[in-house]
């Protein structure tokens, strides 16, 4: 629960309640076999004189040794493919856009500096002399659409929310002090004059027109610096 203290009668007094992606190649083989020598050697011619008959060559002579099995000519050696490991893609790095909100109390205006561009300046209503808007460097601590207002003194909750509620329909908190919170918020039509006249009437909060605070809300994130100067 976040509490916000504001003034009444042109300034809100109360609290803000928020309920807050290998294959193997098989080479063919061939065997080269030589025929066996099974024929007998021819007999010698008989001379005119009687001589002993020539001894015939022994039958079934042993064959020559066969040629060992060889790899068929032209066959490629099996290729070995090394397994590949996919390298995960590096996560995309989101560019950080430098930005800050600048509120000048003396001018009673507010602007956003973001990525080399300036949005605004827009008119604001600020704290009165008894309850001034604090100066210094802060940061956006929360963002709320349709904030609900409650009195810090009585605890009474205001039923009206949205553009006609005491805080409008956008809230950007930037500082907490006890039960109260300082913030930049919208302004109902009944109090729009306090913004157009750049009045110092609030209890420290910063009021903006709806169209301006909605644009600011859209362009900033929690953590965006808020620089308030005199």
If you had to describe this structure to a student in words, what would you say it looks like?
With 230 residues, this protein is mainly β. The protein has a domain at 15-19 and 98-229: L,D-transpeptidase catalytic domain-like, CATH 2.40.440.10. 7% of the residues lie in helices and 27% in strands. It contains two helices and 15 strands. It has helices at 192-196, 210-219; strands at 15-17, 29-30, 70-71, 99-104, 109-114, 117-123, 126-127, 136-139, 142-145, 148-150, 170-177, 180-185, 200-202, 206-207, 225-229. The strands form five sheets. Strands 6-5-4-15-8 form a five-stranded mixed beta sheet, covered by helices on one side. Strands 9-11-12-14 form a four-stranded mixed beta sheet. A two-stranded antiparallel sheet has the order 1-10. The longest helix has 10 residues, at 210-219. The chain is globular. The two termini are 30 Å apart. Residues 1-15 and 17-75 have low confidence and may be disordered.
**Which strand order does the major sheet show?**
6-5-4-15-8
CATH class of the domain at 15-19 and 98-229: Mainly Beta
Order of helices and strands: EEEEEEEEEEEEHEEHE
Q: Distance between termini?
A: 30 Å
- Helix share, percent: under 10%
Largest sheet: 5 strands, mixed
- Figure out the total of helices: 2
Estimated structural class: mainly beta
Strand content: 25-35%
Query: What would you say the CATH architecture of the domain at 15-19 and 98-229 is?
Result: Beta Barrel
Calculate Rg over CA atoms. Answer: 49 Å
- Do you know the CATH topology of the domain at 15-19 and 98-229? L,D-transpeptidase catalytic domain-like
Shape field: globular
Count of distinct strands: 15
- Contiguous runs where pLDDT drops below 50 for at least 5 residues: 1-15, 17-75
